[in-house]
């Protein structure tokens, strides 16, 4: 059992696996610790698969734009596994004047960052996607957005990281962090002690209690997200879909099934006792919303549903940073439900942070110190 490496990554979701891959690719030895018995058991396997730039905060938009331009197009070839990446655009739909105001605001943010994104009316929406309801009066349209398969992408990063010598330890929960000679180096687990020159917390909502042991607190909380997949349907459209209020989002897969995620506002009533589960109230509520946008799916049969925790940060964007207060610690958490699409960029960026503060992509708005009290 190898217990020492240059880099210790905590968390084996798509973010942790991408970090492990890009870091190992640069020649570093890497160990990944995962408390679950399953790789990608969190949000990485419980999301709508969006690879989008539209609708993002300007602070994380550089990660999305860089990834879609430079990483996603060749990712299947690079990793040697088809991640089912499709680049056919993103329609974010609106049915009311209030929705259109929200969408116009999002479009302005994207345009200010150089993104090809514009508002279109209901007629143009249906020209792009004829299955949309007449209730849709407009949308934001980003032709360079797309989607991919979360399960396959997570698996692809994992398998390639293993090929590069990354060691994985599942069912290994982190119980403590300790410094050595003033630098964070020791990771205590329920299976023993691991040691590395750099420790990266990429374990979603689990990062908060772990980091708190060394005086670091990322202000995030768990938010339940539910998702569903339908049986195979005839090919209808290749675009990624979303709505102004983000009450549902999803796409049609290469197989023909539809994968949709969403929220109903009723998640807090679920008697789940801390376990992420779907509920008889919320899933039908999400489906009723979907049908109003796409009547054609009214009779589609649901094959399965699932739920997972989103690590929602108070300001809605992740923390990706070398932490000055704790030398040796890097945070890559708080992705607030939209980490999948930027995972390759995050993996590349964090691998650069291992070697120093300079990164190819601007992440200056995602630092940990943004939560400090201002003088």
Automatic annotation (TrEMBL):
Q: Which GO terms describe its molecular function?
A: oxidoreductase activity
Q: Name one GO cellular component term.
A: cytoplasm
Keyword Cytoplasm on entry: no
Q: Which domain of life is it from?
A: Bacteria
Q: Does the keyword Oxidoreductase apply?
A: yes
Instruction: Note the InterPro entries from the entry.
Output: FAD-dep_OxRdtase (IPR006076), FAD/NAD-bd_sf (IPR036188)
- Ranges where the FAD dependent oxidoreductase domain occurs: 6-353
Keyword annotations: Oxidoreductase
Name of the protein this chain belongs to: FAD-binding oxidoreductase
Q: Which species is this UniProt entry from? A: Pseudoramibacter porci
Taxonomy of origin reads:
Bacteria, Bacillati, Bacillota, Clostridia, Eubacteriales
